[in-house]
TrEMBL record:
<feature type="active site" description="O-(5'-phospho-DNA)-tyrosine intermediate">
    <location>
        <position position="309"/>
    </location>
</feature>
<keyword id="KW-0479">Metal-binding</keyword>
<feature type="binding site">
    <location>
        <position position="9"/>
    </location>
    <ligand>
        <name>Mg(2+)</name>
    </ligand>
</feature>
<feature type="domain" description="Toprim">
    <location>
        <begin position="3"/>
        <end position="136"/>
    </location>
</feature>
<feature type="site" description="Interaction with DNA">
    <location>
        <position position="168"/>
    </location>
</feature>
<protein>
    <recommendedName>
        <fullName>DNA topoisomerase 3</fullName>
        <ecNumber>5.6.2.1</ecNumber>
    </recommendedName>
</protein>
<keyword id="KW-0413">Isomerase</keyword>
<keyword id="KW-0799">Topoisomerase</keyword>
<dbReference type="InterPro" id="IPR003601">
    <property type="entry name" value="Topo_IA_2"/>
</dbReference>
<feature type="domain" description="Topo IA-type catalytic">
    <location>
        <begin position="153"/>
        <end position="592"/>
    </location>
</feature>
<keyword id="KW-0238">DNA-binding</keyword>
<comment type="similarity">
    <text>Belongs to the type IA topoisomerase family.</text>
</comment>
<feature type="binding site">
    <location>
        <position position="105"/>
    </location>
    <ligand>
        <name>Mg(2+)</name>
    </ligand>
</feature>
<feature type="site" description="Interaction with DNA">
    <location>
        <position position="176"/>
    </location>
</feature>
<dbReference type="InterPro" id="IPR023406">
    <property type="entry name" value="Topo_IA_AS"/>
</dbReference>
<dbReference type="InterPro" id="IPR003602">
    <property type="entry name" value="Topo_IA_DNA-bd_dom"/>
</dbReference>
<dbReference type="InterPro" id="IPR013497">
    <property type="entry name" value="Topo_IA_cen"/>
</dbReference>
Length: 731
């Protein structure tokens, strides 16, 4: 009897599929049962070949060899993954395997992972596709009962291949051109450059911003405060003379209540989470980076199976999921969620358009809990935090709206209008899910609310004081990781574009994809184009200079948005992939010519007096995400060493985080607090720490940290990232 070979994307997913499919016999890199054999990739096993594979002249980075445009791009096995590729290849080519099931991640890049492996293994067997959004036993069994012919996903594969080839042709050519031209480690790419340009432009806006003084005028009555408003309901006044006139006209005068209006207001729960919204909230509430949130989500999806597929750009579920809602509610009916979940289950679930909409679901629905009850005690605090956000959002969309009565008192004080607002909660509705208001962004109506006395039209108000308050207009805020994700998702709000371009950006979901945005931000940090000041993201001198050097079109979010729009058309069979790759080749040539003809200069303004121990060139001091390091200015050398890094160790005197400075035996801990003078040799500090009666199993902590570090560094569906890492660890 012939067997079915199932190809998963990662070992953890492969093992889960094997368990459900009863493949208990363990092989080298695969698991086998009576009907199925399950094997797995390690993310990408196959990628596009390096330039030197096509011609020896590309071994050296020289401007005269550009542009590099091989007639047909070749596939190669990734060196570090060669052993697993050979295992997968031997299983695919087994005589007793009659059919293949692609079970990689259900998305564009997941499709590419599998198709490239199958192509490189030279296999031609009937192939089907498993397409699921959660890793529960039920979802896997249902998925295998409803396998689709892989031909249904051919266009998705073509779009993925076009993206990878275009990134190779454009990214490698512009990166080599910039590096050769300026003799510095410079990289560029359609998403990376557009993102960096937004950060640099925002910094420029802040630098050029000139604050203006403005005033607000408040009148105090008995027990409440009213604020001055003009005819257009604005409260800000920019002319000091006008302020003084209003103050002199109203001081010592009584108020006359012109109107008291009461209006019932309803506020519905925010939509379910997609990955970007979840990353934003996790950054705002817990300070997690985008990459960190994705890594945590991946564990909750793959390892614990309590949440659905993370890399989704939809905030809705499709109607076929509605029947599963009771089971999902039962699965989360524990602890603090029990009361709300039980309340929803007792009534009839209202599957309204606020969270059920087929037209707003593409490959995957919003992130929601699965039907599997997890053991919450086994989750780390970070995992629990992310799980908590998703469950609360899931519960809130099925609960009634938050309702309140808004009272507005409008008073006249000697011809000037003053207004006070107050809210009375009628029904907490979905807000009862949230015990901490920090988990919600409060709206303006609530922010201005105060407790108001009972007054009616025509009443006189005794005004005890009328005072002005001088304020200053604020510069635009610097990006943090949360707001940067918003800008990547909706760049039309952050850059000046015409209406047609704004519409294009809106249709394509911005720049990058939900799967790649976290990686792009990490790359900008790793290349020292940006650095952090607290939570704020600031461009470095290198980042600013790079944006001056990069050709104009590559910096525009519109170019990458148009690119994504065309890839979407290819995935739907509405555009010829060959036409797209030809356009990209032509574009790459234009970019190279642009750089060749440029008269711009790049200057290292962070040179140290220390020479590289490998090549003797002066090193550069750079500020990374976790501290300061020296890196060799020569791209080919690549030597780097830590100068100082932030640790989780705490100062014994002021409890602030400690910095670890220096190398080897000379390492010292220094308090990051400039007002604290604590310094101690690392060897002494560690000895003192080790001697304490610490009950924590240090080996276990070390293993957990290693695991988290490994997961954080895993390439996520990014063949171009893999390829570029061989050059300079960036796209």
């Amino acid at each position: 009897m012939s067997k079915i070979l199932v190809l998963a994307e990662k070992p953890s997913v492969g093992r889960e599929l094997a368990r459900v499919l009863r493949c208990n016999k363990k092989g080298n890199g695969y698991l086998e049962g009576d009907k199925y054999i399950v094997t797995w990739a390690l993310g990408h096993l196959v990628t596009l070949a390096d330039p030197e594979v096509y011609d020896d002249k590309y071994k050296q980075w020289k401007m005269e060899t550009l542009p590099m445009l091989p007639k047909r791009l070749k596939l190669v096995v990734i060196k570090q993954s060669g052993k697993q590729f050979n295992i997968v290849k031997s299983q695919l080519n087994r005589q007793d395997v009659g059919e293949i099931v692609i079970a990689t991640d259900a998305g564009r890049e997941g499709e590419l992972v599998a198709r490239w492996i199958i192509e490189k293994a030279h296999v031609n067997k009937p192939t089907k596709r498993l397409w699921i959004s959660s890793q529960t036993d039920k979802a896997i069994m249902d998925g295998f009962r409803n396998l689709k012919p892989s031909s249904q996903y051919d266009n998705l594969y073509k779009a993925a291949e076009c993206r990878a080839e275009a990134d190779w042709v454009v990214g490698l050519n512009i990166t080599r051109a910039l590096t050769c031209k300026h003799n510095a480690q410079l990289t560029a790419g359609r998403v990376q450059s557009a993102t960096l340009a937004m950060i640099v432009n925002r910094e420029e806006e802040i630098r050029n911003f000139k604050p203006k003084d403005y005033y607000v005028i408040n009148a105090k009555a008995k027990g409440f405060t009213l604020q001055w408003r003009d005819k257009n309901n604005n409260s800000n006044i920019f002319e000091e003379d006008r302020v003084n006139k209003i103050l002199s006209d109203t001081k010592g005068k009584e108020g006359n209540v012109v109107s008291v209006t009461e209006s019932s207001k309803k506020q519905f729960a925010p939509a379910l989470y997609d990955l970007t919204e979840l990353q934003r909230d996790a950054n705002r509430i817990f300070g997690y980076s985008a990459k960190q949130t994705l890594s945590i989500m991946q564990r909750l999806y793959e390892n614990y199976k309590v949440l659905t597929y993370p890399r989704t750009d939809s905030r809705y579920i499709s109607s076929d999921i509605v029947a599963t809602l009771p089971d999902r509610l039962k699965a989360i009916s524990v602890g603090s969620y029990r009361n709300c979940a039980t309340e929803i289950l007792k009534g009839k679930i209202n599957a309204h358009k606020g969270f059920v909409d087929n037209s707003k679901v593409s490959d995957h629905h919003a992130i929601i809990p699965t039907e599997e009850r997890g053991n919450l005690a086994s989750l780390s605090s970070e995992e629990r935090n992310i799980y908590d956000l998703v469950v609360k959002r899931f519960l809130s969309v099925m609960l009634p709206p938050y309702e309140y009565l808004q009272t507005t008192i409008t008073a006249d004080i000697n011809g000037e209008t003053f207004v006070a607002k107050g809210n009375v909660v009628k029904s907490k509705g979905w807000k009862k899910v949230y015990d901490k208001l920090g988990d919600l962004t409060e709206d303006e109506d609530e922010k201005d609310s105060q407790e108001l006395p009972i007054v009616k039209k025509g009443d006189k108000l005794k005004i005890t004081s009328v005072e002005s308050k001088k304020l200053k207009t604020k510069a635009p805020a610097r990006f943090n990781e949360g707001t940067l994700l918003s800008a990547m998702e909706k760049p039309q709000k952050y850059v000046s574009v015409d209406k047609v371009s704004a519409k294009t950006l809106g249709e394509t979901g911005g720049i990058g994809t939900v799967a790649t945005r976290a990686d792009i931000i990490e790359k900008l940090f790793n290349m020292f184009y940006i650095e952090k000041n607290g939570k704020e993201i600031i461009p470095t001198s290198k980042g600013k200079q790079l944006i001056d050097l990069v050709p104009e079109e590559l910096k525009s979010p519109l170019m990458t948005a148009k690119w994504e729009l065309e890839l979407e058309l290819i995935s739907k069979g509405k555009k010829d992939p060959r036409a797209f790759t030809e356009e990209m080749r032509k574009y790459a040539s234009e970019l190279v010519e642009d750089v060749k003809g440029s008269t711009d200069k790049f200057k290292h303004d962070n040179l140290t007096g220390k020479k590289c121990p490998n090549c003797g060139k002066y090193m550069l001091e750079v500020k990374g995400k976790h501290g300061v390091m020296n890196v060799c200015q020569d791209r080919a050398c690549g030597h780097r060493e830590n100068v100082s890094k932030f640790t989780n160790a705490r100062c014994p005197e002021c409890k602030k985080r400690l910095e670890l400075r220096g190398q080897g035996e000379g390492q010292i801990y220094v308090c990051a607090n400039t007002n604290c003078n604590f310094r101690e040799k690392a060897s002494m500090f560690n000895k003192r720490f080790d001697s304490k009666n610490d009950k924590v199993n240090k080996r276990e902590v070390s293993n957990i940290m290693k695991k988290m570090k490994k997961e954080a560094n895993e390439p996520i569906n990014n063949p171009f990232g893999d390829l570029m890492s061989m050059f300079n660890k960036d796209k």
